[in-house]
Design goal:
By secondary structure, the protein is of the alpha/beta class. The chain contains 13 helices and 13 strands. Helix content is 35%, strand content 13%. The relative contact order is 0.13.
């Protein structure tokens, strides 16, 4: 079994040396792909890599290119990270991330413990129009492709199934860990959800190992948290995706509907940790304004960031008029602040759900909105000391 060396850095903390922090580590025996061996190996390869010798190496690239019909939002693009790292470790390939739309990921998140950033010179040399680069759209294709295309320089992918190919991650993990056996009966029962419990266990540490917020994003996060007295681990959070699948038809969402769902989202967040501050995020400016007024009217601590512009979806090109990458900062600010909350109340779309698996306890969640009526929790407001098992129809997920 391989050891996972984890320093449990928070996403909001400054960068630290991996080796200096060995004095403060806690050693875990989980998941081969997060082993110190692979990350040490990756560092050595990246130090040697250059424009003249790159064909001596093999790569796995998580991509969103200009040629993609759809890349999805932050959750769609990044929730398969464990699978990509596992595939890279399994095949002795250098893991990289290549975003071209709306811009490079490095504008928002920068490398932390390993350098996953693709050098500028590699963009044209390793695209899918070259014979030595193969694009694979699913985890299933990738698992087969690792063996089929061993001699191919670059294997690229953009995996967007609902569970981030956790099912195929589980297969790779069992291949690499001789002490772990793949359970086919559990796979039959859970289907694509198989392996998701592993994702919940390791995603926060993996994300923190790979990423730090880019300096402009980190600065804004620090300012916003300090100005609103949000302390990591001491608040709860909720996200209301008001315009899921109707970004170009926002007028169809009435103010009454926005207000009703905003109130329920906040109430459900209060159920998680009664009496704790609540950070509210939404793609609707109307919802954000109401959330603030709701807190003020009833003397409840509801934290909002009243940006005049509504949050932009990364993949809605027609909404982005200015060409200024800072327009997307609120998306990453909301994500990283939600990720430091104790618990989560989320609704439709993948953004809130993605934030929940970045939290310390990804199982501390309530579903305040869903496309399936039976999954929606209808919540009252909970104060400190209230019985959260009261029969209000709310459901833990």
């Amino acid at each position: 079994m391989y050891a996972l060396y984890s320093t449990f850095p928070t996403m909001l903390s400054p960068s630290h040396s991996f080796y200096d922090s060995l004095f403060h580590i806690h050693v875990y025996h989980i998941m081969m792909y997060l082993s110190k061996d692979y990350f040490d190996w990756h560092r050595k390869q990246m130090r040697r890599l250059n424009e003249c010798n790159y064909k001596r190496y093999k790569f796995i690239v998580l991509r969103c290119s200009k040629n993609e019909r759809k890349c999805g939002g932050v959750a769609d693009r990044l929730k398969a990270l464990p699978f990509f790292i596992a595939a890279a470790a399994n095949s002795n390939r250098i893991f990289m991330i290549r975003w071209e739309r709306p811009t490079k990921l490095e504008e928002f998140l920068i490398p932390n413990e390993i350098n996953w950033s693709m050098p500028d010179w590699m963009y044209e040399k390793t695209n899918s129009f070259n014979t030595d680069t193969i694009f694979m759209p699913t985890g299933k294709h990738f698992v087969g492709g690792l063996k089929k295309y061993k001699s191919t320089t670059v294997l690229e992918g953009l995996i967007q199934d609902f569970y981030g190919s956790s099912r195929y991650y589980e297969k790779l993990d069992c291949e690499m860990d001789k002490n772990k056996e793949f359970d086919h009966e559990v796979e039959k029962k859970l289907n694509d959800m198989h392996g998701w419990s592993s994702y919940e266990l390791i995603f926060r540490d993996l994300f923190n190992t790979l990423f730090l917020p880019a300096p402009p994003v980190a600065k804004l996060i620090k300012e916003k948290m300090e100005s609103t007295n949000l302390i990591p681990g001491e608040y709860t959070t909720t996200q209301y995706r008001a315009f899921y699948a109707i970004e170009n038809k926002k007028h169809t969402r009435t103010d009454l509907d926005l207000i009703s769902k905003t109130k329920n989202a906040i109430n459900c967040a209060s159920r998680n940790v009664p009496g704790a501050p609540i950070f509210f995020a939404s793609d609707s400016h109307t919802a954000v304004i109401y959330a603030r007024k709701y807190g003020e009217a009833f003397n409840r601590t509801v934290v909002t960031f009243d940006d005049e512009k509504e949050a932009l979806h990364l993949d809605k090109k027609d909404q982005w008029k200015s060409g200024n990458v800072a327009d997307f900062y609120p998306t990453f600010i909301d994500l990283l602040i939600m990720a430091e909350a104790k618990c989560m109340s989320y609704g439709v779309g993948g953004f809130g759900r993605f934030a929940s698996i970045l939290q310390i306890d990804p199982k501390c969640v309530v579903r305040h909105d869903s496309e399936r009526i039976k999954q929606i929790a209808i919540c009252k407001w909970y104060d400190k000391g209230d019985d959260t098992v009261a029969g209000d129809g709310s459901v833990k997920w």
